[in-house]
Amino acid sequence: MSNKPERTVSDLATPIYGLFILAILYTFYLAHEVILPVVLAILVTLLFSPIVESLLKRFRIPKAISSLFLLLGLVAGIAGISFAISGPLLQWAERAPSTVSELLVGESEVQQGLRQITDTAEQIEEQIEEQLGEDAESAQTVVLQTDSWRSQLTSGLYQTAAGVTLALALTYFLLVSGDRMLLNLAAQLSRQKRAIMLSIVRNGQEQIARYLGVITLTNSAIGIVIGLIAWAVGLPSPAVWAVVVALTRFIPYLGVIIAFALLTIVSAATFDSLLMMAIVPASFMLISTLVGFFLEPYIHGMRLAVNPVIIFIAIFFWGWLWGPIGVFIAVPLMTVIMVVVSHIPKLEGLYRVLAKTEQISPKELEEPDNEQSN
């Protein structure tokens, strides 16, 4: 007889769960053109569903009408902002290479270095051709034609528009008939699981609405202040930079760095005085620091707050998985994940790892386990 212990089902649970998670992530990456609009539709539904329900109860407005007007308002807002800032941003994008090169110190040294690299590459190419002899004459040069950044941008916009259209259509149907499907699904579950599912939906709506509502007001206020400062000092297109500041701040941590870099480049390209160059970027950093220290702890300090390390990792992960849209929805998506995890008893350990609140002190970790000591 063999003395090896028999493997039980519980011993295989962790590897199976790991493979299951990897399969889900691979599916998310492979089918992102379908899954991403669905995720966006669910997040927008969680945000707008309380408004639709409130309009139905207070003013007897049918869900089909209120949902349609809310989505039309959302589309009009996105289209208006895009139309207002697209022209100036495209102009700055065309000017960016020359602007950055003018700002670089020692531009001639860089050009000399590039010339040396080019001359070295040409010399190596000539030596290779001499060694190849006649074979080099018959060799064909393959030139890869790459699309310009404008054509790539157009292609990306077409794909984004298709995804947004699908997300808006699905959002409309979820707002109108999603609650019926949810109740029908809940009816198939036991009483305990039904209560957990409905609690997840209610808390998800509350957390998403609270986060997006407060952060939108905060970012809009900061954008307006920066726009007024930019207008006062004479920075071109101050409204555009106000919108850019408000939008980039939806990306935690990285958004502030991106906005500061853009404001610095634009200010340096516009003004000659060092003091004038520093006014707008310094004002933005000062306001962002004050908001970050005093206001955002209350915004992000929700009952189900996510650990900042997890948020930072989530930004890179969802950005790698779904691109720029994944970066923007990383925090709302992690908020929904935290709501789900907090309501499932078996995932309590995962919730403690992801949560911002401290669950155990270092002294408790140093103490021996009472159960093992006994």
Distance between the termini: 33 Å
Q: Sum up the overall morphology in one term.
A: globular
Helix content: over 70%
Uncertain runs with pLDDT below 50, 5 residues or more?
105-111, 141-146, 359-366
SS strand fraction: under 5%
Radius of gyration: 27 Å
Q: Given the helix and strand composition, which structural class is it?
A: mainly alpha
State mean pLDDT (0 to 100 scale).
Answer: 76
Question: Can you summarize the main beta sheet?
Answer: none
Number of helical regions: 16
Overview of this protein structure:
- With 374 residues, the chain is mainly α.
- The chain has a domain at 31-101 and 154-188.
- Helix content is 81%, strand content 0%.
- The protein has 16 helices and no strands.
- The chain has helices at 13-30, 32-59, 63-103, 107-132, 134-138, 149-187, 191-233, 238-248, 254-270, 274-300, 308-322, 324-328, 330-342, 348-354, 362-366, 370-373.
- Helix 2 packs across helix 3 and helix 2 packs across helix 6.
- The longest helix is centred in the middle third of the chain and has 43 residues, at 191-233.
- It is globular, with a radius of gyration of 27 Å.
- The two termini are 33 Å apart.
- The model is unreliable at 105-111, 141-146 and 359-366 (pLDDT under 50).
Task: List its salient traits.
374 residues, 0% strand, mainly alpha
